[in-house]
Amino acid sequence: PPARRVCILGATGSIGRSTMEVVAHLRKVDPEYRWQVWAASGHRNLDTLAEVALSADPVPRRLVASCAQTHARVSGNGESPLARFSGEILAGPDALVRVATDPEIDVLVAAIVGRAGLESTLAAVQEGKRVALANKETLVVAGPIVRQAAQKSGAELLPVDSEHSALFQCLGDRPDDVEKLILTASGGPFRDWSTEQMRQASVQSALNHPTWDMGAKITIDSATMMNKALEIIEARWLFDVPAETIEVVVHPQSIVHSLVEFRDHSVISQWSPPDMRLPIQYALTYPRRLPGVAKRWNRQQPCQLDMLPADRERFPALDLGFEVARVGGTAGAVVNAANEVAVGLFLDGQIRFTDIVKSCHQVLQHHQFDASPTLADLVQIDQWARRETLRFADGL
Ligand code: NDP
Ligand code: MG
């Protein structure tokens, strides 16, 4: 069978490691292709990158150490387990674009966290690759640019984010009959906390997600519900719908991953136990469905599904998300940058939990809005928003 070569950027992370498992599984169950991880990247955790790569079968051909400072260590002495890797090792952020656009790869799994994933994801889209998109921040920052690039190159942009994968699976072939796209939100660890309790929330309690095991940044985003805000913006660009078409409901069990309401008021949802390997596998094999590696619904256990209205007062991130989805332009880049910086400050113990969304609001309000920015404009305003967030946090 023909090879299916996968490039995983962010292979040392939560999504990256799950993707390694999915590819190993597909290699066993898919008679149509010979799946393999062709290239993989890590940033700071290069020992993990080496471990992950050396335990894959076959071992990837190329590794990227995207953190430029590690260049010396990568190419130098034999201390790092990377020294046992006999393939090619590239270093620095530019190398991400090089492997993402390599003619030898068929699929890019964009699993870097944050705006750092933008250039490599966009480059693969421009190259016409299939892109399995976990890195939602890319669409938040530059949704229209990525969409246009995909239209021009014919690239397939397939969601890995579980909600968007669910919407994609529910939409079927009648997208014109859609009334609402309804994103589910677990509500995170503070679903029932008062604003005052959240003001006092510790880093530890915010990192303690009830239903998903994920990287630190998205776990904090889930607690503030900025994650849902980013997902509203992601849905706006991924499905090319106005912000008004999107809604959010709270579903604490994280089993129903999202729902589509049609014109006749029929609602179709997708459900499965919370396990990212399912949307990852579907993005890789679409439109085919192959034997799964993800957890299976156990019918011997009682299963309860709650759907609750979202509380926009206690979680002001939601209105922020709708606002940014509505105005577009530079707003996404600004809010995303402010959020990345504010989450970092919170994790470092420098600001309060409730200051994260407050900072995003503040910086959004003070920026010079541009309705149709170029990529260069977005990169610049991202840097401005990072500085502005630090300045605002300093004054808190
Ligand atoms: P992790 O923090 O677990 O992993 C992040 C990955 O990105 C790591 O490989 C890390 O490398 C790499 N990385 C970090 N900073 C940079 C940088 N500046 N340049 C290049 N690479 C970098 O995150 P997750 O796997 O949880 O999330 C990845 C993306 O997927 C995010 O956009 C998130 O929103 C999205 N997502 C995640 C879900 C989940 O279940 N985890 C669900 C839905 C979406 P290293 O570790 O070596 O430093
Ligand atoms: Mg999600």
Automatic annotation (TrEMBL):
Biochemical pathway: Isoprenoid biosynthesis; isopentenyl diphosphate biosynthesis via DXP pathway; isopentenyl diphosphate from 1-deoxy-D-xylulose 5-phosphate: step 1/6
InterPro entries in UniProt: DXP_reductoisomerase, DXP_reductoisomerase_C, DXP_reductoisomerase_N, DXPR_C, DXPR_C_sf, NAD(P)-bd_dom_sf
Sequence positions that bind 1-deoxy-D-xylulose 5-phosphate: 136, 162-163, 186, 209, 222, 227-228, 231
Keyword Metal-binding carried by entry: yes
Catalytic activity entry: 2-C-methyl-D-erythritol 4-phosphate + NADP(+) = 1-deoxy-D-xylulose 5-phosphate + NADPH + H(+)
Positions that bind Mn(2+): 161, 163, 231
MF (Gene Ontology): 1-deoxy-D-xylulose-5-phosphate reductoisomerase activity; isomerase activity; manganese ion binding; NADPH binding
Keyword Oxidoreductase applies: yes
Root EC class: oxidoreductase
Keywords: Isomerase, Isoprene biosynthesis, Magnesium, Manganese, Metal-binding, NADP, Oxidoreductase
Residues involved in NADPH binding: 12-15, 44-45, 135, 137, 215
1-deoxy-D-xylulose 5-phosphate reductoisomerase C-terminal domain boundaries: 157-239
Listed EC numbers: 1.1.1.267
Pfam families with a match to the protein in the record: DXP_redisom_C (PF08436), DXP_reductoisom (PF02670), DXPR_C (PF13288)
Biological processes, Gene Ontology terms: isopentenyl diphosphate biosynthetic process, methylerythritol 4-phosphate pathway involved in terpenoid biosynthetic process
Superkingdom classification of source: Bacteria
Cofactor(s), names only, from the UniProt record: Mg(2+); Mn(2+)
Ranges of residues in domain DXP reductoisomerase C-terminal: 272-387
SUPFAM superfamilies hit by this protein: 1-deoxy-D-xylulose-5-phosphate reductoisomerase, C-terminal domain, Glyceraldehyde-3-phosphate dehydrogenase-like, C-terminal domain, NAD(P)-binding Rossmann-fold domains
Domain 1-deoxy-D-xylulose 5-phosphate reductoisomerase N-terminal: 6-143
Function: Catalyzes the NADPH-dependent rearrangement and reduction of 1-deoxy-D-xylulose-5-phosphate (DXP) to 2-C-methyl-D-erythritol 4-phosphate (MEP).
PANTHER family assigned to the protein according to its UniProt record, in alphabetical order: 1-DEOXY-D-XYLULOSE 5-PHOSPHATE REDUCTOISOMERASE, 1-DEOXY-D-XYLULOSE 5-PHOSPHATE REDUCTOISOMERASE, CHLOROPLASTIC
Family to which the UniProt record says this protein belongs: Belongs to the DXR family.
Listed name of the protein: 1-deoxy-D-xylulose 5-phosphate reductoisomerase
